Amino acid sequence: MAVETACDGACWAAPSATVVRPGHRHRFARLEREPLGALLECLEGTCDDAYAGSGARGLLARVGHLDGSLADALAQGAYLALAHAVTRKPEEVIEAVQRAGLSGRGGAHFVTAQKWRLAAANAGPRLLVVNAEEGEPGVFKDRHLLEGDPHRLIEGVLLAAHAAGIAHAVIYINGQARNARSAVDLAVEQARDAGLLDGSALGGAGVEIEVRSGAGGYVCGEESVILNSIEGERPVPRTKPPFATDRGLFERPTVINNTETLCVATTIFDDPPPPTKLIPLSGAVPRAGLYEVPVDGVTAWSGVLAAAGANPQRVRALLLGGPSGRFVLPEEFDAPLDMRGLGAGGVVVLPLDADIPRITRALAAYNARESCGECTPCREGTPRLVALLEDAPANRERINALIEVMTEASLCQLGGLAGKPVASALALFPQDFEREASR
């Protein structure tokens, strides 16, 4: 039987087909280039050694391996964590999240247990908002999870709802992620029909799940912008405090979690492997795609690059975090990965001939285009930064002063982090900017 599934994270392999038998799984990659003889032979029962692919374990274990039905998701382990959680008191679940060391995977890495506990301490109806906006260039981890294993997200939502006493959740998906929206809509309907949402199947108080699509835009990934968007207001950041756990959506205590964060929450009762992070890898790399890597104090960028078939000696740098990130030199490739330093996780591999000044100006220009215009430091500062980069060596002092103002005074992190890649590039590649200015 042939079944169309979501991508399992191996973007480099598309278009691909995977032959699955008990105890055997073999992927045939790049079918537009390779002859189909081996695939046809495998369908008849003659295959080479199995190829597990990039999603053999962890959050990607079911991604690309599901047929879209709830029955298949259940057969592969979905909702086991929820079944265990609803037998425990809410505070016990929060304590389990605390022991697991779960922190937000959206970039800020706020301690998840603390966020749930703060919301639970407030009286009145509490809400959960799932940030699946993911508007950063080069980041596609949440989209893969939503398309390939939407029931893992729903399980995470129900687990968080039980822990924090939440009765209503909103999943806010990037408006351009149409396949992700379709997959989540179907999964919510399946879960509702099966009695998973109202608590009749596994227990618990039940929660209503609503799915919304955003209009797109980098700033829409900021949590208070999402709240304004859902309320029908202009999508601009809110002043803090108050924080969302006190007064969030419709003035109610609100937990805002990233998609990956809630998916990781479904693993808290496992005998867990070292904490992992989903890393979308693109650029000058033979096997671009979505990788789940352990952040265990041992794994380094050199290991990630090796898994993707890249030769570190042919890499000029990594761009980590896109328009809000920084550059990583080869000298750092053997340093252990740090969860907090990974940001949202997007990584672009830059070749030896990468034009760093041009890339830096492109990042600055992107931030200028995406500014919502709500605050002066970002609205006026981002285009000014682009102009100053036309002759960065001559304007170095003014660039540094402008970045400091934007960092300290911007209303949200679009402006607050807009100068980060610029400062990183100027610090690590001054000779590139000097050479360009002397032409």
Q: Keywords for this structure?
A:
4 domains; 17 helices; Rossmann fold; 439 residues; alpha/beta
Q: State the end-to-end distance.
A: 62 Å
Order of helices and strands: EEHHHHHEHHEHEHEHEEHEEEHHHHHH
CATH topology of the largest domain: Rossmann fold
Strand order of the largest sheet: 8-7-11-9-10
Task: Give the number of DSSP strands.
Answer: 11
**Percentage of β-strand residues:** 5-15%
CATH class of the largest domain: Alpha Beta
Based on secondary structure, the structural category is alpha/beta
Characterization of this structure:
- There is one protein chain.
- A hairpin with a 5-residue loop joins β7 and β8.
- By secondary structure, this protein is of the alpha/beta class.
- The protein has four domains: 11-53, no CATH class; 60-265, 3-Layer(aba) Sandwich (Rossmann fold); 276-351, Ubiquitin-like (UB roll) (Roll); 356-437, de novo design (two linked rop proteins).
- Residues 51-55 have low confidence and may be disordered.
- The strands form three sheets. The chain has a five-stranded mixed sheet, with helices on one face. The protein has a four-stranded parallel sheet with strand order 5-4-3-6, sandwiched between helices. A two-stranded antiparallel ribbon has the order 1-2.
- The protein has helices at 37-43, 70-75, 80-85, 90-100, 112-120, 141-148, 150-164, 178-193, 223-230, 259-265, 301-307, 356-370, 376-388, 396-409, 413-416, 420-428, 430-437; strands spanning 17-21, 24-28, 126-132, 166-173, 208-213, 254-258, 276-283, 289-294, 315-320, 326-328, 347-351.
- Helices cover 37% and strands 15% of the residues.
- The chain has 17 helices and eleven strands.
